[in-house]
Amino acid sequence: MRETVAALAGLPTRLGYGAANLGNMFREVSDDEAWEVLEAAWDGGVRYFDTAPHYGLGLSERRLGAFLQTKPRNEFIVSTKAGRLIRPNPDDDGGLDLEHAFHVRTDVRREPGYDGVGVRTSLEESLERMGLDRIDVLYLHDPERSGHLDQAVAEAYPAMQEMRAEGLVTAVGIGSMVSDALARSVREADLDVIMIAGRYTLLEQPAAVDVLPACHARDTAVVAASVFNSGLLATAVPSRDSRYEYGGIPEDIWERVTRIAAICDSHGVPLPAAALQFPFQDSATASVIVGTARAEQIRQNLELVNVPIPAALWDELRAEGLIPV
Q1: CATH number of the domain that residue 140 is part of
Q2: Residue 274's closest CA among 230, 319, 228?
Q3: Is 139 a residue of the active site?
Q4: Residue 257 maps to a domain
Q5: pLDDT tens, residue by residue, 209-224
Q6: Residue of 48, 215, 279, 305 with fewest CB within 10 Å of its CB?
Q7: Number of domains in the chain
Q8: Neighbours of 133 (CB within 10 A)
């Protein structure tokens, strides 16, 4: 169902907003800042919004839901994720969730819920946190990270498919940074859409080997996330101070990104524009998700996703072995 995200509700979804930052990822974000960035996205035409219970232990869902409650329900698409249930934390010491990069209190914690009951419960609780009557797309969130991929295939995906048949959600899928987990999920479950985080970007494309062929074979749509590789591709001139995979930049990655940036510059194309538009080189890609806590960055991304890019740029990157042929 390749058109699931792009055509759902007949809305434009070429660029979507990923709301991890609204959960105080990396730094504390005020309610006013969160609202401002969402308004900038909406005013710029963004109509696809993605969140998860994981993001700020529910804070992102609450903030996004409060904003979307002010908009007509038939004018936006919202996705969230299942697999991590938010539960009271009996071990709370008054600290912050910095282990997961979120500046929020740890009075609650994540508990795995990759069985059939868990994904149903997760959806119910997400709807309550967001104050919405329905979720359009439900992704299973990183089942491989906690060793639950087998359980996901055996229990979570069948339950999600039942939820889709019951009309509780319109589309189901997986969101992950691991190509093996994505490819297996597409091959073994009836998924409408997957979210590939950081594995199909201008910088690196391991998903092109096995994930995208599986998507084409099963007619599964792709949403590309983390297309800036945690910030490394977010500026015209890459900086050694940028994050890569939420950490430092390995030497081979630095050498690769400087080559890509030089080729983009030679064609007069800003590196972030090429990064935003690269995933559409594969026809399975329905949408690109970007996240930020700054309204101005949203406005810039909306401009960059529409910058004309000559075919010669992609041709040179292919000839140099920097993107797939």
Answers
A1: 3.20.20.100
A2: 228
A3: no
A4: no
A5: 999 999 999 999 999 9
A6: 305
A7: 1
A8: 7
| DSSP H helix total and E strand total for the chain | 12, 10
Q: Answer yes or no: is 168 within a domain.
A: yes
Amino acid occupying residue 316:
E
pTM, two decimals, is 0.94
Residues of the domain holding 289: 4-251+270-309
Do 223 and 287 touch, CB atoms closer than 8 A? yes
Asked if residue 9 is part of any domain, the answer here is yes
For residue 139, give the nearest of 51, 270, 265 by alpha carbon. Answer: 51
d(CA 42, CA 68): 10
pLDDT tens-digit series, residues 53-78: 999 999 999 999 999 999 999 999 99
Res. 246: pLDDT tops 80: no
Name residue 225's amino acid. Answer: A
- The active-site residue out of 55, 157, 200, 244 is 55
Please give the C-alpha separations between residue 45 and each of 10, 38, 41, 257, 296, in angstroms, as whole numbers: 13, 11, 6, 30, 14
> Could you give the CA distance from residue 249 to residue 24 in angstroms, rounded to a whole number?
23
